[in-house]
Amino acid sequence: MIDIKRVTFSRGANVILDDFSAQILNGEAVLLSGSNGAGKSTLIQLIGGFLTPDSGSIEIIGNDISQLKAKDQAQLRSIAPQRRIFDLAFTVVQTLNFVPKKRRSLRTHQIIEELGLVDLLDKKVTELSIGQQQRVSLALALIQEADFYLLDEPFAGQDAASQVRTINLINEIKNEKGVLVVSHNSDNTHSWFDREIVLN
Known about the structure:
Blueprint: E1 2-11, E2 14-24, E3 29-34, H1 40-47, E4 55-60, E5 63-64, H2 70-76, E6 77-80, H3 92-96, H4 108-114, H5 130-142, E7 148-152, H6 160-173, E8 178-182, H7 186-189, E9 195-199
Parallel strand pairs: 3-8, 3-9, 6-7, 7-8
Antiparallel strand pairs: 1-2, 1-4, 4-5
């Protein structure tokens, strides 16, 4: 379980999260929605340990992430950011191989297939479209073995067929793991999830 306990976070005078609490359980896919600037990506970064709350705490499977080293956090959660920058001209397969074999999910081949990356494996990731790069970023997160997956706008830049494949994959993974998905387009996606957390 991810247990977010009374978290407050500010940027300067702007309070983004105020005494916010929530839980994400193993075996469920949760949609995190809200208007622009409500704090969705900020919450993902807080759970990911990239930001530190002003007050409150975040635990993953009973571990306070503020007390964990980065490598220990990585074993608990895997993150697909809203926009991953690919600067180096590695091929897709080379990029995916950055995840060490001992850390790769047994679903790796299935994930690559279901995200439509098989025909792109030998192409340079810098030459792909934004939507294709987004799928590579998503694959990088999902092939990493972890207890929870934090996916920030995984449907952005995807056509309808890719969105359906992605949600089918999420629902397969959530049978064993917990998944938190940020999407601004909750009207079209909320029915795909077990429940929704709305940030105001």
